[in-house]
Specification:
This protein is of the alpha/beta class. The protein has helices at residues 3-17, 41-44, 51-59, 78-87, 104-109, 120-132, 134-140, and strands at 24-29, 32-38, 68-72, 91-94, 113-116.
């Protein structure tokens, strides 16, 4: 596991400790993490605060995003994929897409290189969370 995905996993674990959904993300530019975040929908009572959105907010204005790489413990959903495409991020590493298939094809159709790491740790983190919190998970993915 590379250090950037590990940082995203650490963010996911922090979100879980806070009572939220264990999804984390980091934004990397020039080999350095410039933003990090985790899903805070529960903590903030905000349906838009997905991990990738929190990460981008925390990175602040970075000018051009074309040289950045986004890491997320879970394949980005359409909301987050839309931000990736809108800002011109050209590469995304996802920890897994077994739990949630996300919007890989959407990102790829807009020129984004999407790499699924297929991390067992990411899958196990989500399996455990979903087993313990099925209603919260279904709310998160819009399947109430």
């Amino acid at each position: 596991m590379d250090s950037f995905m590990q940082a995203a996993i650490d963010e996911a674990k922090q979100g879980r400790k806070e009572g939220g959904i264990p999804i984390g993300s980091v934004l990397v530019k020039d080999g350095k993490i410039i933003g990090r975040g985790h899903n805070k929908r529960v903590q903030d009572g905000d349906p838009i605060t997905h991990a990738e959105i929190d990460c981008l907010r925390n990175a602040g204005r970075v000018g051009q995003y074309k040289d950045t790489v986004l890491y997320s413990t879970l394949m980005p959903c359409y909301l987050c994929a839309g931000a990736v495409v809108q800002f011109g991020i050209k590469k995304v590493y996802a920890g897994e897409n077994e739990t949630f298939s996300g919007a890989k094809e959407f990102m790829e159709s807009h020129g984004v290189s999407v790499i699924n790491i297929d991390s067992e740790e990411c899958k196990e983190m989500m399996r455990t969370f979903i087993a313990e919190n099925p209603a919260l998970w279904n709310e998160d993915i819009g399947e109430l």
